[in-house]
Design a protein that fits this description.
Length: 156
């Protein structure tokens, strides 16, 4: 069994002309929500073997707060990715990794979660899902994941 954690970056500051999109920081609420996501994952006993993360400032900070002590790999391909591109990144993971986390952006993170698990659920800032997969990472594809839990900071 493999476990996948898909985390959308927490609430970020509004984009302005003065701050490029990649450099937008988390808001105070975003900082709190990212920490709370980490607490929820800790309660679930989930510590990823690896964290794949967008290099955007808001995603990096979310990963730092949600997965303290776990070294993240910042992958430019995750920023502005399509769901298929995220899935391809997951297929390349070390087969020995039991738990992989991916911290990125919508709509790709949300669409990937729905593709893997089916269903119809929202995916606001700071939301994560935990998906179990019975296949190796290299064989991961649509419909092969089971939604274990979903956490949304607005609903907590």
């Amino acid at each position: 069994m493999r476990t996948l954690i898909l985390l959308r970056h927490a609430k970020a500051a509004t984009q302005t002309l003065a701050v490029p999109d990649k450099d937008r920081p988390l808001t105070d609420r975003g900082e709190r929500d990212a920490e709370r996501a980490g607490e929820e994952l800790w309660i679930l006993g989930l510590t990823p073997d690896v964290v794949l993360c967008s290099p955007a400032r808001r995603a990096r900070r979310t990963a730092e707060l949600a997965f303290p002590g776990v070294q993240a790999r910042y992958e430019p391909a995750i920023y502005q990715a399509y769901p298929e591109e995220l899935l391809e990144r997951l297929r390349l993971q070390d087969p020995d990794h039991a738990t992989v986390a991916l911290c990125g952006h919508n709509p790709a993170v949300h669409e990937l979660a729905l593709a893997l698990t089916g269903g119809d659920y929202g995916f606001g800032p700071g939301t994560f899902v935990v998906i179990r997969c019975a296949v190796p990472w290299a064989e991961l594809s649509s419909g092969l994941g089971e939604l274990i839990t979903r956490w949304d900071p607005k609903l907590d």
